[in-house]
Amino acid sequence: MRPILMKGHERPLTFLKYNRDGDLLFSCAKDHTPTVWFADNGERLGTYRGHNGAVWCCDVSRDSTRLITGSADQSAKLWDVQSGTQLFTFNFDSPARAVDFSVGDKLCVMTTDPFMGLPSAIHVKRIAADPDDQIGESVLVLKGPQGRINRAVWGPLNRTIISAGEDAVIRIWDTETGKLLQENDKDVGHKKTITSLAKSTDASHFLTGSLDKSAKLWDSRSLTLIKTYVTERPVNAVAMSPLLNHVVLGGGQDASSVTTTDHRAGKFEAKFYDKILQEEIGGVKGHFGPINALAFNPDGKSFSSGGEDGYVRLHHFDPDYFKIPSI
Amino acid sequence: MAEVMSMEAIRTEAARLNIDLSGVDWNSICLPPGEDSGVRSDDDDLNEEDSLEFDAGFGNIIIVDNLPVVPREKFEKLEGVVRKIYSQIGVIKENGLWMPVDEDTGKTRGYCFIEYNTPQEAELAKEKTNGYKLDRAHIFAVNMFDEIDKFMKVPDEWAPPESRPYTPGENLQHWLTDEKGRDQFVIRAGSDTEVLWNDARQVKADPVYKRPFWTESFVQWSPLGTYLATVHRQGAAVWGGASTFNRLMRYAHPQVKLIDFSPGEKYLVTYSSHEPSNPRDTHRVVLNIFDVRTGKVMRDFKGSADEFAIGGTGGFTGVSWPVFKWGGGKEDKYFARMGKNVISVYDTESFGLIDKKSIKVENVTDFSWSPTDPIFAIFVPELGGGNQPARVSLFQIPSKVELRQKNLFSVSDCKMYWQSNGEYLAVKVDRYTKTKKSTYTGFELFRIKERDIPIEVFELDNKNDKVISFAWEPKGHRFAVIHGDNPRPDVSFYSVKGGKVSKLTTLKQKQANALFWSPTGRFIILAGLKGFNGQLEFYNVDELETMATAEHFMATDIEWDPTGRYVATSVTSVHEMENGFNIWSFNGKLLYRILKDHFFQFLWRPRPPSFLSPEKEEEIFKNLKKYSKKYDVQDQDISVLLSEQDREKRKQLKDDWERWVNEWKRYHEQEKIDRQMLRDGEASDVEEEYEAKEIEVEELLDVSEEVIQDA
Q1: Using CB atoms, which residue from A202, A245, A253 is nearest to B668?
Q2: ipTM of the complex
Q3: Could you tell me which of B379, B376, B377, B350 has the C-alpha nearest to residue B363?
Q4: What is the pLDDT of residues A123-173, one digit of tens each?
Q5: Which of B403, B426, B402 is nearest to B414 (CA)?
Q6: Phi, psi angle pair for B619, to nearest 5°
Q7: Which cell locations does it reside in (chain A) (predicted)?
Q8: Closest CA relative to residue A168, chosen from A230, A213, A119
Q9: Running DSSP on this structure, what letter comes out for residue B711?
Q10: Which domains does chain A have, with CATH numbers?
């Protein structure tokens, strides 16, 4: 089907997130204003005004009532999804980047960038059931990795936190003690900055995308490398189909060198790979800048991509897509 | 071995010396020249060959003997004379002239040493002044300082050279005996050079031999595929053999830049140019012709770059390569070069000029040999503002007889295209229109093998069309022309059979700027390289139909394999991205692609010509069905095997995956209760637990009253 082009952001997209029911799509961009859309027809539902910098990441609670956003304005904000009102602001001394609700939505992990001599850090905050009781104190602060931490997510049963970033290392932390439990095997790991990380629905495995032009699939518990998907371009965004054994990689050449070549050389395609065979099975073109964000609808029947070009493209799969033979 | 310091020790040392280690760029650190910290390079050749040129360090000193013996009062004068002679040739180093004096008599000893800036200058000085007559009694004897040792060691008595017992070499043609009839190719990417089989049936490349830093600039196959030549600072080398690529011969030529094989690969021409130490002088050029098998220098040519730069446009530091063009087919009988107003033809028996004379041709600007016969064509442009017409002539060697000549008027440029069998010569002539403001193109066709060499003139349908590319069908009678104005030119095919040029067809508006005939003829690729982004059209000229169109984005090079079965298209490092190559079948089916960063070269290994007679070839062609049966069966077997392997691999992958998934499911089940607790007892974390309830909702939207009137 023809993709739905969603024009609402004025700056490059940074992150996309569906709610659990798959009827809402949240988008973050560098233009300070996270936006919520109807995931079916791409109609704009509303915006969340209040941030004063690029918004890097967001997450929505399981019951679709709370939205958390991390922004370059050195804050993370908790919003009421329905009304769009700010419920709470977590202030930091450096830009916030990744945010992720835990299972049960009682905790939230946030990362902050290295800034003015401050190292990067991972913070765990408690999210109060009643916003009036909300406090800004961290339950846990983890430090150690060099450079930016681009993504931090909860492992199975909130027992671990998985982080990845500029130093190309994936780390698993214990959420009880705050200890570093594991780092990935350097020989098989990424060689350059890890830009993105996507968990499977049951959190048993996750996919990382890196500027080293590959994406890798890992076991969340043992941090064993399971699959590697090789592409021709730096990978900025990854997503896994909840329905079929497909993974999608998005990226493209550096935004800085986009204008120097033919648009086809940029390879701004969302590339579909067979999750098991690691073979490319198709591509979806359309963006005229690198793809920065990808998300699958939880029903697996549509996905959306957000690009450096400022557009979100919402794709509902044709019936043919579901007939792609697997093995 | 040097002592290895631990990182800790380095840190303390650095702290002691007050060096900030974080500010040190480790890659920029290198050892002082000649210092290796006691770690010897593994490459013996490197050590050995380095000494050849650099170690002795006296290569730039010459000894001039047979000088007059003069008393002290005349010393200055003699020194002045010698200095004058030798400073004309190159820059003598400061204090570089030393004339020893006999202390007893106070007279000079009759010889002197001269030190130049470069060995090249010293060599030139030796060459030019050895035998120089200062006067009747004093004829200079000039030698290199380095050679003195050699002369001292000459034994007084002649000893017969030892004859070494014959050791059988490897079969250099071994690659032709491949059971699957595959072809080889060499690729150069990054620092690695690799030879591979093109295993098209298995749709992959099968590695043969790989070696990092095999060459310092490029590699080149010899024309019959026997040798792979590499280029190094010290000279060129050839490699070959049955299975591993062993070095077969070395050709010493310091700072060699370009190499060229004779068509029968008997000889190798190497070229280097040297920067003069006096910037006003021109570059000095050295050319060596080696016998490939023995490694012996058959002839060397030395001179200033100007002498070798005539005619050719562009090229390497003004020299158009190859300087020497080989004629007379695969026998390597003659080679020639163009000089100012002359064509110098040499034969390989004596390596001297034929009849000791060059052929005088005023103002010749271009010449080219027939690919098969000792005939060459020359082009002389118009002279005297059009008073003397331009002309194209054919010369026969060794008789130097002019076979045919054609005068041409108001010519702006001319280009010669030989058909690969030497049967036809097409000359593309650009002529000025009457106003001289623009040009139009015509062709002169020489039928070399016919009596009296008839010439035919033909023009394109629209003679104002610019000709972008021209190509003869190899061994055939057809040619293709890309003509018209950008961006979408036309492609026309002509046949010259039956004594007349006839047009076969014109394909309109093609995205093509280069033509690549299959080496066996019949098929051609119309390619749109560079600006056309790598558009490819595979065309069958027999049927006049397009077999396939494809694209290899940004393709820079296209090469057919020597059998005409496969084509390689490659993107070399002139583009930053997409580096690598694709292998296609002759009819445009993509077989496989390999991506390599920093991809420099792709070269098919050439094959020597077939031993089959034309009759035999025709017989095979007629009974192709019979012969091909065997191969069809093989193909079938392989494809069955492949799909079998593929199925197995997929099954394996699937099984592995299932194992992961099952493990995850198990964990997921185990943790179910914990998860529920985390979610305050809410159970529905799996899709199945959704319950579809139908709820009927009645909503009153609007109430309106309407009066219905009775009729």
Answers
A1: A202
A2: 0.85
A3: B379
A4: 999 999 888 899 989 999 999 888 999 999 999 999 999 999 999 999 999
A5: B426
A6: -60, -45
A7: Cytoplasm
A8: A213
A9: -
A10: 4-323 (2.130.10.10)
